[in-house]
Amino acid sequence: MADGEAFALIYRSYFGFVHRVCLRMLRDPAEAEDAAQDVFVRVFLKINTFRGESAFSSWLYRLTTNVVLMRLRRNKHRWTPLVEGTEDDCDSISEIGGPDPNLMGWIDLQAALDVLPAGYKEAFIFHEVFGYEHKEIAALFGYSVGNSKSQLYKARRQLRRLLAGIPRGGHLDAS
Questions:
Q1: C-alpha pair distances (Å), 49 with each of 2, 98, 169
Q2: DSSP class of 129
């Protein structure tokens, strides 16, 4: 199969997945469409960085969320009105280049997801992000519906615990 054919197959197979992730994060269909196109440009340029240590969909999910986060960051700066400052505004100048408080929730969630055990992470992402039903998840991974529900329950519980205890900009520990 030629590279172009392989890329077309990836695009056809994963466009819906990527678009849903973009739409959930951006909440704007036009922005989500643009972001999804940006993701596939990145896929084309970065496919050689996929090492096969995880599922392709996991790599693509991470690439997608990174593209969307960068888009949010870029759009925030583009839409920020410029006003003449006063001496009281000097504190905000020191924050330039610092963490974006509007993105911290997404960054914290991604960091928390990264430390979840694989089963918890799969159940959470496939159910909450992609909208799969438990019977579909069970069929995909070859386990029972009850196991899918259990994995999702445990993922949510651990995510709540992790996100409640994260100092902003701190590191996560799955223990």
A1: 19, 28, 27
A2: I
